[in-house]
Amino acid sequence: MDHKNIPHSKEACKASVNAVRDALYVVNGKWKLPMLVSLINGPKRFKELQRDLEDITPKVLSKELRDLELNGFVTRTVYDTTPVTVIYERTDYANSLSKVISELHDWGMKHREHIKQMSRAEAEARKAVAV
Amino acid sequence: MDHKNIPHSKEACKASVNAVRDALYVVNGKWKLPMLVSLINGPKRFKELQRDLEDITPKVLSKELRDLELNGFVTRTVYDTTPVTVIYERTDYANSLSKVISELHDWGMKHREHIKQMSRAEAEARKAVAV
DNA sequence: GATACCGGTATCCTTTAGGATAGTAGTATC
DNA sequence: GATACTACTATCCTAAAGGATACCGGTATC
């Protein structure tokens, strides 16, 4: 949030805090945003999602998908093939989160670099002490 | 995330998912981002933060502040007045989250409107049925 | 006949987040 | 002398998130 769009009064500050709280209320948790990221590449089946989201268990995946569906972020379509095919797809409303996700993605990459540099610097410091 | 910055291969998809997971790992939870929002208006004292973040208990606030400090997002400065004054302040690294927070803020506002419209539409539908 | 894929459920369990309530030492205020 | 403010900590507790493991019916494949 830049200073330009956040007025500096107490009430305005609380309002900003609440806007962010509202947003977090819907997209909180470890998996929802990553799931929406995975679905950017197009509709996916259950198992495909499970493979993209390493370490997610089917139970959790299924629950999170239901949540996302309830909130209007994904649709679930069953095709009557044998065996059945179930396709999950982002809705237009999920696309309204594009910028949020994109910024989070970019920041995540920068953060990873930041962490790497920190531990490198730390290693240097230890070496210096050792000498 | 726009299609322009996310390549559509399986590996690239997993990488994007992981970038977002990395980001969420640090800023997850109900309070961290709202706290950083509150601190945009300038350094704040403990009680000021508590007032901005309605309903947060001192225990949780204190724990979240420690987390943010450990991750390098805020600094804690004690002034030796009587009684002591403790000031929390965003670091430069917290500012690197500006865009993420700003987008989340904007989306939160739009989402609130969206929800309102939905419930209005629902009310209309109920009326129509009742007639 | 054994194994594997699909789209999940069922059951049980641990961990964490978060909340409720109370209290503390020191100062200032009424 | 009672109350209020600051910046917390301590204790206890609940609810939710998340994970481990196993399993299901159906199909296809080897």
From TrEMBL, chains A, B:
Keyword vocabulary terms for this entry: DNA-binding, Transcription, Transcription regulation
GO molecular function ontology, one term from the record: DNA binding
Entry-linked Gene3D superfamilies: Winged helix-like DNA-binding domain superfamily/Winged helix DNA-binding domain (1.10.10.10)
UniProt xrefs under Pfam families: HxlR
Entries under InterPro entries matching the protein: HTH_HxlR, WH-like_DNA-bd_sf, WH_DNA-bd_sf
Domain of life, per lineage: Bacteria
Domain HTH hxlR-type: start-end pairs: 13-116
Name the UniProt record assigns to this protein: DNA-binding transcriptional regulator, HxlR family
